[in-house]
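To illustrate the input format used throughout this study, we show a single complete record. The first block contains the structure-token representation of the backbone; no residue identities are included at this stage. The design step must infer an amino acid for every position from geometry alone.
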């Protein structure tokens, strides 16, 4: 894990600044994902706020708010299950802006993770405008590549939003250069090929991908996601990445609470937050 340099800070944007602030403490940032609408819209706002922790119990440094989608090709089974239930219970695209406002009220910055079709249907400029008005830092767009993102590049410039694109171990050096050049804030390095989900060990391809990114685009911050399940893994990933991204591990205790008949119980979620927050600080 390396602290952001001055060039990186210049390209960081709001979400990148949150990562750089954690790096300045000698640790990786913790980025936490939860979808809006699960177990309900109101319940998801409570859970997202819980990710942010308290002064006595640190939480995540940056919140990643997911928009449930009917065909989530990159999401693992845990996230798909929660997203399917959220859609069945009537979550709407506009609910993400209320989620952003709830997170920002805690002082923690928030980005939105969404499949591009939802933004396109809402209207790219309108979505960017409403996200900025809600206090959002930017978008993570897993199925949008810079070559096809002209409208989003323009809207994000207009409203001062970060744009986070994804790279993977299979990306060519040429693709890494073009993708990172289009990013503002940081780049999302997927540590494995395939769908998301917790894993017992961090994939070996992740450190090599980060090395390649550092060599090709040294002025951009790197977040690594897809698979971190606990504090020990977070510590391992935090030794070479600027940020550790976690999603399914936060959702598992929420799904368990619902199955136990108490969907409002966030005790398990808070325990996972504490474990992961301690993990990045060990790194």
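Output of the design step:
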């Amino acid at each position: 894990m390396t602290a952001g340099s001055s060039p990186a800070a210049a390209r960081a944007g709001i979400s990148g600044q949150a990562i750089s602030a954690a790096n300045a403490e000698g640790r990786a940032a913790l980025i936490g994902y939860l979808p809006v609408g699960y177990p309900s819209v109101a319940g998801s706002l409570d859970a997202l706020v819980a990710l942010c922790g308290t002064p006595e119990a640190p939480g995540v440094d940056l919140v990643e708010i997911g928009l449930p989608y009917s065909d989530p090709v990159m999401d693992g089974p845990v996230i798909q299950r929660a997203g399917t239930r959220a859609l069945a219970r009537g979550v709407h695209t506009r609910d993400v802006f209320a989620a952003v406002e709830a997170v920002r009220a805690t002082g923690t910055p928030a980005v939105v993770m969404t499949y591009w079709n939802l933004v396109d249907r809402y209207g790219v400029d309108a979505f960017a405008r409403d996200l900025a008005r809600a206090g959002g830092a930017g978008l993570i767009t897993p199925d949008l590549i810079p070559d096809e993102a002209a409208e989003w590049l323009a809207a994000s410039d207009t409203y001062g939003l970060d744009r986070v694109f994804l790279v993977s171990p299979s990306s060519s050096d040429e693709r890494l250069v073009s993708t990172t050049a289009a990013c503002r804030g940081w780049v999302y390095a997927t540590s494995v090929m395939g769908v998301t989900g917790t894993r017992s060990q961090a994939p070996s391809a992740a450190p090599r991908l980060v090395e390649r990114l550092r060599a090709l685009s040294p002025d951009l911050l790197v977040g690594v996601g897809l698979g971190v399940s606990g504090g020990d893994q977070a510590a391992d990933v935090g030794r070479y990445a600027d940020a550790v991204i976690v999603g399914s591990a936060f959702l598992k205790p929420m799904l368990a609470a619902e199955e136990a008949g108490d969907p409002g119980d966030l005790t398990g979620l808070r325990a996972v937050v504490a474990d992961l927050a301690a993990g990045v600080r060990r790194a």
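Structural context for interpreting the output: The chain is about 50% helix and 15% strand. Residues 1-10, 193-202 have pLDDT under 50 and may be disordered.
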